[in-house]
Each structure stands twice: as structure tokens, then as C-alpha cells.
Amino acid sequence: MNDGLIADNLSVKGSGLQFCGQDVAALAKEYGTPLYLMDEDCIRARCRTYREAVKRAFGERGRVLYASKAAAFLHMFRIMQEEGLSVDVVSCGELYTAYKAGFPMENVWFHSSNKTDADIAFGMDLGVGCFIVDNTDELESIDRIAAERQFRQDILLRITPGIDPHTFDAVATGKVDSKFGFGIETGAAEAVTARALELPHVRLVGFHCHVGSQVFDSDVFLRSADILFSYMDRIRAVYGYVADRLDLGGGYGVRYVVSDPALDLAANIAEVGARVKALCERYAYPQPEISFEPGRSIVADAGLTVYTVGTVKRIPDVVNYVSVDGGMTDNIRYALYGASYTVLPASRMDEPAEMNCTVVGRCCESGDIIQPNVLLPESTRRGDLLAVCTTGAYHYSMASNYNRLPRPPIVMLRGGTSTVAVRRETLDDLLRCDA
Ligand code: LLP
To answer: Which of 375, 261, 331, 296 is nearest to 4 (CA)?
Structure first.
């Protein structure tokens, strides 16, 4: 039997896995595999958890931005708008998707560590709420491009607090040696703050920091707040500047396997709220608008990927390979980060799972591994369904067409119904840019 049901939107009926109370085999039959399923009720519930927690902690001076890099498509932006979130984007592609979804542009904040002049002009012309500035070249460009348009652009400066969030190196961004932002210790932060205050066509509205992703230590956000308040206090003393906004970034972790801790988001945000209140008192600082930018913790466990097994290759005393009809093209996270996953035998949930195997994809690449050391039933064979849990964040958004494989569709599940939010790519879609 499988006891690895890590999320409460998963259940078992007979031999079949159910997701959001719907039969995974029936969904696979209707939409084909590989298939991304997303639990829309779960996404909406998570948005509300964040909004309510932020409201309790910061009143009207709080904001939740969905980090759309986790999963960006029209329907997702519509959900975020309906749930009253703002969004952050990191490219013209994400921005354009938000725009086409009818998302209010003043609630879109534009990130990215290397915005081109064309990106900046596009963002300004669409009217994004603010730019999060990562480097001085960008700052000067924003000032110049805003001058051409005869207005003043709101910006936040991305500050690097110098914290190691104890997470995978590849997703850590707040350390001193980071490619992102301006270090406090190096003096870069103060220099760029001084420069931003001088420029006539930017309006410095505050500061931003983001330490890392898949973070479980609530103390990371507390330490960020400590460091940023101390920094803002110094800037006020030297330049007389009081920040109106402080964005503490995203990064709250989620459970991919049963051994991962379950985070209490509301409790964590309440702790940050208490700390910010104490810091405002300590420094006699008017409370800035506090924002968070969660991506993964809003959508990750709303996602389930369903595959069909193509072959089981047993290499005695070495390894058993179970090959599925997707792979690193729809889930690159094991290949890139060695990420852990819970894999379920979606059509044999009532059988003992005792065959140790490596679940691999169909790409011509030996690194195309979804997960090693998975326990599946001995009887697993061609035609069976496998489900990989917690694939709502950074799967579709990092998907590729390697080997000219079409990307899977995204089907949203809500209140017992299913609808296609992103259709499956066709072979002709693969040719659409070819001359
Ligand atoms: N804000 C900023 C400035 C960020 O760089 C990120 C993520 C977020 C917010 C959202 O972080 P989240 O709440 O989703 O952890 N591809 C990797 C994750 C890269 C995250 C990059 N930045 C993965 O698949 O794990």
C-alpha cells in the first residue's frame, strides 16, 4: 500500500488515485498524458490564507504579490486578480501574459536582474506599478527612458541582506556573493540609494530583498526585516529619506516528500508582523507597506503530473528503470537541483509498492531522471499511470521542447469540474517559428 499521500487533495478509491475528488485515470483518458493537473480551489485557498494573514499582520499596509515565474498563463493571472493579489513579473513575456489577462498593470511589479532598454520601455508603456531595480545600469536607463516619456517612474531597490537561507545553492539569492541586488556590506546599497534620490525621473518608493527559495526557517524573514530596518534607519539619518514600502520577497517552502516539514504560513507571517511592529517602534519608523512575493507556496501542491508508463527495464542487481511519456521537458527539477518528489502508482494504489526503481523520462539524455529510489508495485507495466505530486510550481514554467516534444496541457480542477487552461501543444505548434 502507498502511505505517501502528502497532500489532502489526494485520495484513493479502489486501485485508482483521486485528485481533488476526481478520478486521475478518467482525467488521463479525457486529456491524454503527460498531463499537468492543477487544483484551482487549493490555489485560491492559498491566496486567501496569504491575504488574510498579511491583513492581520499589517492591516491595509500589506500586499501579496504572486511571483508569476512559478506558473504563468492567462488563467493563473485571472485567478490572482479575482483573489485580490498583485503579481510580480520578470520578463516581457510574463508581463504581456498578465496584460492580456486583463490584470491591472498598477498591481504588476517588474523584476529581473537584467532588464534591457526594450524591457524597460515596454513595462513603462504598459504602466507597471513599479520596477524593482537590480543594478545601476538599469537605474540610469529607467531614469533616461522615463525622461523621454516625461514622467517619474516608481522604483524599489533590490538590497542583498547577506543572509544564507540554508537552501539549495542554485536557488539562494540573498548572500553577499549573489548576482542579485546591491550588497549592504559592500557599500553598493548606500551608493545606489544616494544616486536614486538624485535622479529626477525615478521616485524611490522603498526597498526589496529576497533571500532564497524553498525556505523553511521562519527566521530568514525576521533577519531580513532586522537588516533592512537597520539599513533604512541609517539611510534616514544620512539622507533624510523614509521608505514607504518594504518588500520581503518570497521563498516559503513546500512539502515535496513526507519528510519535508509542513509550514504554517499564517503563523509565520504573524511572526514577521510582530517583528516589523517591534522594529518600527525601536527605530520610531512609520510602518512601510510590507509585501511578500510567494510563488511556490501558492501553486506547488496544487499541481500533479500524470504520466503513462512506456516500459519497465529491469537490470538485475543494478536498477529497474520505469520510463514515462514525459521527462525533463516537463519536469527538469531533479536534473537541475536533485529535487525530491513523491511518485505514486496512480492505477495500482491498492498493491504493495516494493519494487525499487528509477523513474526516467523519454528524452535522449541519461540525466533525464524524474526521481531515483521510487517504490512501485512489482506488477508495474506499460500502460500504467504514474503521478508525480507537488508539480504546480516551476514545472510548466520551466518546460521545454527538447527532442521536439510538445508541452503537456494544464487542466484546472475546480469544484468537481475540469477545464483546459493551457491546451496541449501540437506538432504544428512546434513549427510555428520555423522559417
Ligand atoms: N521573488 C523573487 C525576487 C524571486 O527571485 C523569487 C524566486 C520569488 C519571489 C518566488 O520564490 P518562491 O516563493 O517561489 O520560492 N526554479 C527554482 C526556483 C527559482 C526561484 C527563483 N526566484 C525551482 O524550481 O525550485
So the answer is: 375
Q: How many angstroms separate the CA atoms of 305 and 313, rounded?
A: 22
Q: Is 102 left (phi over 0), alpha (psi -120 to 50) or beta?
A: left
pLDDT in tens, 15-60: 999 999 999 999 999 999 999 999 999 999 999 999 999 999 999 9
Atom of ligand 1 nearest to the CA of 158: 3
| Residue position matching grid coordinates 487542466 | 411
Cell reading at 144: 533616461
Sequence-separated (6 or more) residues with CB below 8 Å from residue 254 = 214, 260, 263, 296, 297, 300, 301, 390, 393
pLDDT tens figures, 71-87:
999 999 999 999 999 99
Q: Is 46 in the pocket of ligand 1 (CB under 6 A)?
A: no
Q: 501540437: which residue's cell?
A: 426
Closest CA to 247 of 152, 183, 157: 157
The number of beta carbons lying within 10 Å of the beta carbon of residue 192 is 22
Q: How far is CA 115 from the centre of its chain?
A: 20
Instruction: Count CB-CB contacts under 10 A for residue 343.
Output: 25
First to last CA, the chain: 52
Decide: pTM greater than 0.85.
yes
Residue of 47, 130, 209, 364 with catalytic role:
364
